[in-house]
Each structure stands twice: as structure tokens, then as C-alpha cells.
Automatic annotation (TrEMBL):
PANTHER family according to UniProt: COENZYME F420-REDUCING HYDROGENASE, GAMMA SUBUNIT, HYDROGENASE SMALL SUBUNIT
Protein name: NADP oxidoreductase
Organism: Rhodoblastus acidophilus (Rhodopseudomonas acidophila)
Cross-referenced Pfam families: Oxidored_q6 (PF01058)
Top-rank lineage group of the source organism: Bacteria
InterPro entries, per database record: Hydrogenase_assoc-protein, NADH_UbQ_OxRdtase-like_20kDa, NiFe_Hase_small_N_sf
Domain NADH:ubiquinone oxidoreductase-like 20kDa subunit per the UniProt entry, residue ranges: 20-166
A GO MF term: oxidoreductase activity
Statement: the UniProt record of this protein carries the keyword Metal-binding: yes
Cofactor(s) listed in the protein's UniProt record: [3Fe-4S] cluster
Length: 183
């Protein structure tokens, strides 16, 4: 798809909360179209740029579920600074695989993993540098307002490309059923 660059490049930020980074890998899977994308947008906070904070931006793509206090901070910062927030992938949309821990007590999980398993230490780490775990795992829309959702685990590079180019062009983003992938 050959797109005409917008008058002013849109600013795009991305973040990965608690998940596997598969959605960012799908973004890289747009392959050579990534070169076309950088003609249309400027990347702000993103693993692609290694920028750690978010300034004002037009679109924020966020993958992963909300599992800890740092995730909440990053998500709220992005929501404050972006015009459109897009939940990308099953973890961001529903809590995904990280939400499997919601059936259990967090304290019991930590005790089991750090104190009871063979070869582990005798206490749960309590370093102040570690983010505080939340009582359960949340999808993004339970913490902030989300403007758009891209389902999939992960969404394909083609689906992300279509969605992004629709947003950049000012069209309502639409994906057909064949675009959804849950590996």
C-alpha cells in the first residue's frame, strides 16, 4: 500500500507491559513496510527507539496486561500523553495468559515459588526496586480508557500494518476475520 505522508508526521509510542513481547515482534514483522511507516510517523517511547518515557503523541500501541505498580504507572503516563490509545493483543485486551494467575492468591504464589520449590531461596524478595504486584492481572481497559482494540495472540504484522495505516489515514480501522490469529 503506497500512502501519501501526512502534512506533519504523527508521533507513535509503544509499550510492553506484562506479556511476551510477541506483539512488538509482529510490529517488526511488517518487514520492509517498516521503512514506509517511518516516513509517516515518528516513534517516541518504544523498544524500537529505547526511549523510556512518553511525551505528547498521537497514537500509543500497548501490549501486555497490567500486573504490577510499574505497569499502572506506564499505562497512565501513556494515556495522559496520547490522543489514541490502542490495546494490542490478547493480554492487553483480556488479560491473556498472565491473567491465569487470577485464580490464586498472590502471596501464596510468591511463597510457593520463592520458598517452597526445590533450589529456591528462603524468602520472597522485597527489594524496593521491584514493582509491587497487583492482587490480580487486569486488561488495559480496566485501568484506563482505551480507544481501540486489536485482538490476537499476537496479531499478525499484516493486521498491525492495516490497523496503523487506517488510523494514520484517518479511516476507521477495520480488520476482517481472517486477520485474527491466536497461536
Amino acid at each position: 500500500m503506497n500512502m501519501r505522508p501526512p502534512m506533519k508526521k504523527l508521533k507513535v509510542a509503544t509499550a510492553s507491559l506484562s506479556g511476551c513481547l510477541g506483539c512488538h515482534m509482529s510490529l517488526l514483522d511488517i518487514d520492509e513496510r517498516l521503512l514506509e511507516l517511518v516516513k509517516l510517523v515518528e516513534f517516541d517511547r518504544s523498544p524500537i527507539t529505547d526511549i523510556k518515557s512518553c511525551g505528547p503523541c498521537d497514537i500509543a500501541l500497548i501490549e501486555g496486561a497490567v500486573c504490577n505498580s510499574e505497569n499502572v504507572h506506564v499505562l497512565r503516563e501513556l494515556r495522559r500523553n496520547c490522543k489514541m490509545l490502542v490495546a494490542v493483543g490478547a493480554c492487553a485486551v483480556t488479560g491473556g495468559l498472565p491473567a491465569q494467575r487470577n485464580r490464586f492468591d498472590v502471596g501464596e504464589i510468591l511463597e510457593r515459588c520463592y520458598c517452597e520449590m526445590p533450589g529456591t531461596q528462603s524468602k520472597v524478595p522485597d527489594d524496593p526496586e521491584l514493582p509491587l504486584l497487583l492482587d490480580k492481572v487486569y486488561p488495559l481497559n480496566e485501568i484506563v480508557r482505551v480507544d481501540y482494540f486489536i485482538p490476537g495472540c499476537p496479531p499478525s504484522g499484516d493486521a498491525l500494518w492495516k490497523y496503523l495505516t487506517d488510523l494514520i489515514s484517518g479511516r476507521m480501522p477495520r480488520l476482517d476475520y481472517q486477520s485474527f490469529r491466536f497461536d
